[in-house]
Amino acid sequence: MRVAGNKGAAQTNSVIFLSALLQESWLESSKLPFVLKGIRDGIGSVDVGDPLKDAMTRHYRLLTEEAGWVSAAQRIHDLVALTDLDDRVTATGVVLLVQ
């Protein structure tokens, strides 16, 4: 993330990258924990915020437009099933709070 130039750009880039990955058909619950670890390790700084909430919000909104909120909520639930508790809580918060 050092190539981004500043912390804000690094945050934005990591959200865009994770958002793109969340849309990939190969990404499933067994792979998401490793994807998140890789992105977080790649950020390499505590000064750059975690991209999960913003990326998950984008992804959930896209899914609700395509399939409705019930299917979108189920997809998010299934996708984060094997992630850490904090990540599951973040995803659940997105589903409950995003309109």
Please give a structural write-up.
By secondary structure, the protein is mainly alpha-helical. The chain has one domain (2-97). The chain has helices spanning 7-22, 32-43, 52-67, 69-79, 85-97. The N and C termini lie far apart (31 Å).
Q: What is the CA-based Rg, rounded?
A: 13 Å
Care to count the β-strands?
A: 0
Which shape, going by the Cα principal axes?
A: globular
Number of domains: 1
Number of helices: 5
List keywords for this structure.
99 residues, mainly alpha, 5 helices, 69% helix, 0% strand, globular
Chart the SSEs and their pairings.
Elements: H1 7-22, H2 32-43, H3 52-67, H4 69-79, H5 85-97
Helix pairs in contact: 1-2, 1-3, 3-4, 3-5, 4-5
Q: Concise description?
A:
The chain has helices at residues 7-22, 32-43, 52-67, 69-79, 85-97. The chain is mostly helical and 99 residues long. It has one domain (2-97).
